[in-house]
UniProtKB/TrEMBL annotation:
Keyword flag Aminoacyl-tRNA synthetase: no
Protein name as catalogued: Tyrosinase co-factor protein
Assigned keywords, A-Z: Copper, Signal
One Gene Ontology biological process: melanin biosynthetic process
Signal listed as a keyword: yes
GO molecular function: copper ion binding
Organism of this sequence: Streptomyces spectabilis
Family from the record: Belongs to the melC1 family.
Pfam (any one): MelC1
Length: 130
């Protein structure tokens, strides 16, 4: 069935077309919102809470240290078997440890696990940070 020339567009489109356009617009807006939220929460953001776990026989603990404004963690205090692990944030948002300056980790927990992997079974942290 074809509409006569000059008929308004809304009358020429079928319900299926309108429903499809509405669904596409909804899905597109959901995708845009998810991408915006992902960009708004960088690694190490405040939603990452403290951790305390046993990993390969070592106890690793970490707590965010809030900055002056309280907007989020400006640093982390991370320990392995009670000894402080030197941890630094890179410009790209990843972390490195004093145990392995060349490793790049997405979170303080991943960095602590990487330090335990590097230390092995018998080595211990000195407890000194740079």
């Amino acid at each position: 069935m074809t509409a006569a020339p000059g008929t308004p567009l809304i009358h020429r489109l079928g319900r299926r077309h309108l429903l499809g356009a509405a669904a596409a617009a909804t899905l597109a807006s959901v995708g845009v919102m998810r991408a915006a939220l992902a960009r708004a929460t960088p690694p190490g953001a405040p939603d990452e809470g403290s951790f305390d776990e046993m990993y390969r026989g070592r106890r690793i603990q970490g707590d965010p240290v809030l900055g002056e404004r309280g907007a989020g963690p400006s640093a982390w205090r991370v320990t392995v078997d009670g000894r402080q692990l030197g941890l630094m944030r890179r410009a790209d948002g990843s972390y490195l440890t004093m145990v392995d300056h060349y490793g790049s980790y997405e979170s303080p927990l991943a960095a602590a696990r990487g330090a335990v992997d590097e230390l092995g079974v018998t080595a211990r942290l000195s407890g000194h940070t740079h």
